[in-house]
Amino acid sequence: MKSMIKHLTFKSILSILWLSIIFISGCTNNASRVIDLSTDIKNTVEQTHEYLSITNTEYVNATDPNDGMSIKVYTYDLHTKMLNKMTDLPYNSQYPLTVVSLAENTIYYSGEGQNKGDQLFAYDMKTRKAKQISSNLFAINAIIPDVTENTLMMAAVQKGERPVKVMFLDKATQKISILNEQDSDTTTWDISYDLETEKAYAIQYSEEEQYEQMEKSNQTQKPMVPPSHTIIEISPVTKQTRTIITLKDEQILTLSTRGNQMLIALPNILINCPSAIVWSI
Length: 281
What we know:
Helices cover 9% and strands 47% of the residues. It contains two helices and 20 strands. It has helices spanning 13-24, 207-220; strands spanning 5-7, 34-36, 51-59, 69-77, 83-90, 98-101, 106-112, 118-124, 129-132, 137-148, 151-158, 165-170, 175-178, 186-194, 199-206, 229-234, 241-247, 254-258, 261-266, 275-280. The strands form five sheets. Strands 1-3-4-5-2 form a five-stranded mixed sheet, with no helix packed on it. Strands 6-7-8-9 form a four-stranded antiparallel sheet, with no helix packed on it. A four-stranded antiparallel sheet has the order 10-11-12-13, with no helix packed on it. The longest helix has 14 residues, at 207-220. The chain is globular and about 55 Å long. The chain starts with a strand and ends with a strand. Mean pLDDT is 83; it is low at 7-32 and 39-45.
């Protein structure tokens, strides 16, 4: 049975609150127990149900940055409510990000590449060796390790460019394909994958529209109205897309999809907490 993973990503305090409610509500005191698997990774049992992959950064000396920082990688089993420490990785990227694929015994993460910029790396939890996969990226915002057989999906920025694009890595050939590569205006805020329908989703908006709204806000001295946000559906196999929903002058913080149902979070300025909407795809 294919292991199922949800990548825990924090983009703002609003999304932290929302994700905490969705994924960690109802936890008992057992959830505070941490099992360290990093020293004996061969004993990791096959994962047959859902888990969270968690990235945590800490000072090496637990006090200040004098001795540097490290990335601690955890999984949280949604069935047993156990928090398992997988390993420590060096913190040398601009934006630290990891995601554990227990099915592959691999941690995919962003690490420092040559000539600046973050690249995609794969850490083998059995051999404890890391391998650089990409060479032409600048930043990585999200990673989903398995969207179809042998395919990884990510939201990342190429060197010399600004927009965040949806990218697919063929693990067999190590080739990266970029969705709408020639589009220099549309940027991707978040991505999701539906295990049941085998479809991928992305939140996107226009950078030009965002700049125009920012200029208007500066001129009027009023709060900035966000650019319209659109959610698109993507076939990881054919790369064909279709628009699911566009919210005019609204920001979509994050989304989660399962079986033709989509949960999206919107900012609610009045109570400083996101509101959630369930949408039928």
